[in-house]
Amino acid sequence: MKIIAVDPFYLKMPQITDTADGTQDTLVVRIQTDEGITGWGECDASPLVSLAAYCCPMSHGNIINIRESLIGETFDSVDDVIRLHNKALRNGLDIQQIHHAYSGADIALWDIVGQKLGEPIYRLLEPQSQSHSKLPYASVLFGDTPEETYQIATRLRDQGYRAAKFGWGPMGKFSEENDVALVRAAREGMGEDAQIMIDAGVVWGDDYETAYARTKQFAQFSPTWLEEPLAPDAIEAYMELSKRNPPVPIAAGEGSGTYRMAEDLILHGGIQFVQIDVGRIGGITAAFRVRQLAEQHGIQYVNHTFKSHLILAASLHVFATNESFDLLEYPAEGSELSQRLTVERLEVGSDGKVGLTGKPGLGVHVDTDAMGAYLAPVQIQVGNEIVFKPVEL
Amino acid sequence: MKIIAVDPFYLKMPQITDTADGTQDTLVVRIQTDEGITGWGECDASPLVSLAAYCCPMSHGNIINIRESLIGETFDSVDDVIRLHNKALRNGLDIQQIHHAYSGADIALWDIVGQKLGEPIYRLLEPQSQSHSKLPYASVLFGDTPEETYQIATRLRDQGYRAAKFGWGPMGKFSEENDVALVRAAREGMGEDAQIMIDAGVVWGDDYETAYARTKQFAQFSPTWLEEPLAPDAIEAYMELSKRNPPVPIAAGEGSGTYRMAEDLILHGGIQFVQIDVGRIGGITAAFRVRQLAEQHGIQYVNHTFKSHLILAASLHVFATNESFDLLEYPAEGSELSQRLTVERLEVGSDGKVGLTGKPGLGVHVDTDAMGAYLAPVQIQVGNEIVFKPVEL
Predict the structure, then answer these.
(1) Interval B226-236 mean pLDDT
(2) CA–CA separation, B283 vs B315, rounded Å?
(3) A226 within 8 A of A218, measured Cβ to Cβ
(4) What would the pLDDT profile of B28-41 be if each residue is shown by its tens digit?
(5) CB burial of residue B257 (10 Å; 0-12, 13-18, 19+)
(6) Residue B332's pLDDT is what?
């Protein structure tokens, strides 16, 4: 089949705030083929900057936009999806945003080839494989105080969550005693049989000594991991932390905008959990390579997801077939936009786990009627040329 | 003083081709202050995608555009320039393009603080220092054939160049014999006493064995370096190449869009020359950190520059004070746009070297009259809001 249209849509809530809530807007990508099959993808990135990578005028042979790379291409197989991934990234070698932007197109192409071949994506990634449901962990912010954190944790426990991640907020901002009290409150609120994770929100920068000291204090509460104690680029500091054998496993990787960034963390950062956002790293194609690298190095792959169930499904296909990768970051709350984007939702089952729908492709479908309410049509003019204009949903 | 305006201008030639000529368009950034001092910077990146990072609507606390980060800020010192660099990159943590885009703003801020303090930028980076002129190497594309390459090389020699880099085009696309013939032609055309450099233009991907084989063939022509034999992300392949002790030094780094990418190459890629584009890595602030890292590791820092003399001056300030870093990539040809952008040009002196003008700030000034002919006014509308519109030069 032939690609006849590649259309990014900018969706947003009426009001956007500066809180750490990634569901307030999104860029959704639709790809249409001459056989009538349509695929959808989603990016976790600035919608406008990513959209520009779909339509920017050519600068030279290393700055060619994504539409130019894809429209008119023939594709029918998994090999073609990978070929087009390589082509688009090569054509966009000098567009820094290319991986963030291409993520949506890559997910849409996997969706199409899955529909064409009548297979869910995970089975295209690993033929004859089975998918495994995952234990969803609720991802929430710490309360402002230990008491508030305790209240949040008990609420999550009452909602049935057996795992929860607490992050950002006051963590690392005040005393060691306060940090410890926050983690104690999370543990006591969730109960002894739950999994708790701590997300330090890059608060200690490159100060690995403080990060190490905290792991020694936090170990008494048996958290599954301490996430992003250090800045995303502080790989050398991660290695120093790792050399001290911290008694709590270290997790990081959501900022990986390229395969190499994840590889760098795994090879030189000494982490135990690698957290990949399929909407940032270049889509399913790049994320699956990181999963394979994690398997080779005996560390655990986990998704990073803070958007809709469209990207949640894409994230899950990447590692659904590895039973030992058993945790799923699960966007439990989030904006109305993110809740309404898909017709199907990946709900928590009676066994407390979350699985795929089993349908071909992504297995979830975009609700184009619902999308209309959030659509922010974009028009871009460069000189005398309109390089991007709104298209119909 | 206070920042009152931050304006990126998209400039382009009437016709753009897919050749590896980065001078066909550009993004120039003007910053104005309430004290009447104006600074200029330039990005080596997709103009439209970078411009979008100046005006994209906020998505959350990690996607805030560059104008929002800078306008209204007070600054008077070098510390302020660094503070604003950190602020803009932190606000744009989830905008992958942020480093490419911020490069122009960072250069403009250094230009302003230099003018304010009456000092050239290199002396702000290293107080009481002296700048040293560099040996310029002409940077040209290989001819399509060895014969054409020989003609180009003799022409450069006749123009007085004592060093020249030949790159891209047919290199690596055909046989080993052809590759060798191209390098031989470059050497014979430039003469035995000249320095020649070979730029393979990432043609061998992650195939370090072929890259190593070429260094053994090319060594007979004593090139100063073999540049980018491998893909920018193929750091593990660079390390494998390095372990084989190739008989030609390896250069890389122009693709470094972050400080960490350059650090990764230096620590884990085993290169001998690190080539930094001040218009991609986040400006003078980030490039200077790489220069310091190169000094610590005993490798040579070289600029990567394929734009106008505005960015050439910015590049040179970064390492002008280190006499042993003695080579300067010099855009000898390039579009009319790139030639006409600045009033002053950093011409080759009678000693065959290129130095700074000694004037405060960048020491070169933009020719706004000349710019007008190449201006492509940009207008961007998102929903009902015009987020970017043309401003007067």
Answers:
(1) 95
(2) 9
(3) yes
(4) 999 999 999 999 99
(5) buried
(6) 75
Cα separation, A208 vs A52, in Å, equals: 38
CA quadruple B257, B258, B260, B262: dihedral sign? positive
**In chain A, beta strands by DSSP E:** 3-12, 25-33, 38-43, 135-141, 163-167, 195-199, 225-227, 250-252, 273-276, 300-303, 327-330, 378-382, 385-388
Provide the token pair at A131.
Answer: 């998918």
Q: What is the DSSP code string of B175-192?
A: -HHHHHHHHHHHHHHH-T
Rounded to the nearest angstrom, the minimum Cα separation between A167 and chain B is 15
| Beta-carbon separation of A53 and B59 below 8 A | no
Quote the CA–CA distance of B249 and B253 in Å, as a whole number: 14
Residues 42-61 of B with CB under 8 A from A: 44-49, 51-53, 55-61
Chain B residues lying within 8 Å of A64, measured CB to CB: 18
SS3 at position B42: strand
Nearest to A96 among B64, B94, B100 (CB): B100
Query: How close, in Å, is residue A374 to chain B by CA atoms?
Result: 10
Closest residue by Cα to residue A323 from A297, A348, A353, A293: A353
Whether A296 and A269 have beta carbons less than 8 Å apart is answered as no
Which of B96, B103, B293 should we substitute to test contact with A (largest number of A Cβ atoms within 10 Å)? B96
The model's pTM: 0.97
Residue with tokens 């007067």: B392
Which band of pLDDT confidence, cut at 50, 70 and 90, is reported for residue B114?
A: very high
Asked if A52 lies within 8 A of B49 by C-beta distance, the reply is: yes
Instruction: Determine whether the interchain pair A49/B49 forms a contact, defined as Cβ–Cβ distance below 8 Å.
Output: yes
Q: State how far the Cα of A134 lies from the Cα of A352, in Å rounded to an integer.
A: 9
Please report the ipTM that was assigned to this predicted complex. Answer: 0.96
pLDDT digit string (tens) for A95-123?
A: 999 999 999 999 999 999 999 999 999 99
